[in-house]
Amino acid sequence: MRQVLVLGLEGAGKSSVLHYISSEAAKDRTAPTQGFNSVQVSAEGFQIDLLELGGSQNLRFYWNQYLSQAHVLVFVVDSADEPGLPAARQELHWLLAEDPRLPLVVLANKQDKRDALSVAELHRELALHTLNGQRDFFLLPTSATHAALATAISIRRVRSLLVELLSQL
Ligand SMILES: Nc1nc2c(ncn2[C@@H]2O[C@H](COP(=O)(O)OP(=O)(O)OP(=O)(O)O)[C@@H](O)[C@H]2O)c(=O)[nH]1
Ligand SMILES: [Mg+2]
């Protein structure tokens, strides 16, 4: 079992992304995650356990306790929530400081929204240029609720990236 830890501020779209990855279908409605939400997908030769921890302020306190079991960190960002980006950046960099090698996949989610920032803008706003060279790092645009081909493709790309990263372990 390989574990993927899925974090990000409340409402970023973690549950929606996990639902799509495991069921290959968009879901238009999710409830805020109380505690955690776990989803399994099978890859060739191994199982992937994706563990989402809720993003509300009181739950963020527990995030770092789960880092040591994780093989990959997925950090989901609401690309259209510009005011929330400083908090997302701060939480992300706190997590990264705890483990300088943990592979990181940042999802620039909600790309279907008209006011979504681009991947390049998010790279800057999240100060991702400051990452050290020790870790594998990827930044991918996603959309998890929009029923369009681009959504299906973006989620499939996340899934195959995770399989690729985890199969190297
Ligand atoms: N337009 C759009 N809405 C999205 C997308 N992903 C998620 N949402 C919506 O954003 C809201 C929050 O999504 P969730 O998946 O519950 O977010 P979360 O990160 O799991 O939130 P917590 O569990 O509270 O930490 C829901 O209303 C989703 O339908 C997306 O790609 N595009
Ligand atoms: Mg959730």
UniProtKB/TrEMBL annotation:
Q: What Gene Ontology terms describe what this protein does at the molecular function level?
A: GTP binding; GTPase activity; metal ion binding
- Record bears the keyword GTP-binding: yes
Claim: Nucleotide-binding is one of the keywords in the record: yes
| UniProt-listed SUPFAM superfamilies | P-loop containing nucleoside triphosphate hydrolases
PROSITE patterns, from UniProt?
ARF (PS51417)
Chain sites annotated for binding Mg(2+): 15, 33
- Pfam hit, one: Arf
Q: What is this protein called?
A: ARF like GTPase 10
User: Species name for this entry?
Assistant: Chelydra serpentina
